[in-house]
Design goal:
The chain is an all-alpha fold. The protein has one domain. The chain has a two-stranded antiparallel ribbon. The N and C termini lie far apart (58 Å).
Length: 206
């Protein structure tokens, strides 16, 4: 019963329960407030098919925003509750150790790109490039590598956006919350622009 009541708390108030760093992301001159965070949480909810309040609840347990997709990625692959993954992470395990514990190896994190990327993806893709595919399980990825790769896949697939463009935005120093918010805005603008053009043509036919 308590769980049901907790999930009924309005999202607006939940944002104020999240630590200050989650309420305001400032990076590369871009400020992301509650609207940008809600967009990020909603994207995670839709992509990983989990309730949005659960995403917020996981964030409240001191998991950084950019690591939230990693929690749900591993949980879905491992077929365990996200809370299990969070407990391991807060217990001091690296993302690599948690992954391997559930039989998830570096080949699962690979996202195909048209050309070799630079930082912050250069190291990880260098590992993939320098080993035959049947040896990718031997690659040791850092926490940063895994966070970057999971978010690259998540944002690219959830927004139908080329991963190469996300790599470029990341290279400029943008956080993933900022990147997701910007892409959502661009996609919405393109859709509205397309509707406007279609309506214009329709009026001419009349």
């Amino acid at each position: 019963m308590m769980l049901k009541i907790k999930y009924l708390i309005p999202f607006f108030w939940l944002l104020f329960l999240v630590p200050g760093s989650a309420q305001q992301n400032v990076n590369a001159g871009v400020s992301i407030g509650p609207e940008g965070l809600k967009s990020f949480y909603l994207s995670i909810s839709n992509y990983y098919s989990v309730p949005e309040p659960q995403v917020v609840e996981i964030r409240q347990r001191k998991i950084p925003e950019e690591e939230l997709p990693v929690v749900f990625f591993i949980a879905r692959r491992a077929q365990v509750k996200p809370e299990v993954i969070v407990d391991l992470r807060l217990g001091g395990y690296s993302w690599y150790d948690i992954s391997v514990k559930y039989g998830i190896y570096p080949d699962a994190y690979y996202v195909p790109l048209e050309s070799p990327p630079g930082p912050p993806y250069g190291n990880a893709y260098g590992y993939y490039r320098n080993k035959p595919r049947n040896e990718w399980r031997e690659i040791l990825l850092s926490d940063e590598d895994i966070v970057n790769l999971v978010n690259l896949r998540f944002i690219s697939e959830s927004n139908h956006y080329k991963p190469e463009k996300i790599v470029e935005m990341r290279k400029e120093g943008n956080q993933f919350v900022v990147i997701n918010h910007k892409i959502k805005g661009d996609n919405k603008g393109n859709q509205n622009h397309g509707k406007g053009r279609g309506q214009g043509k329709g009026n001419k036919k009349k």
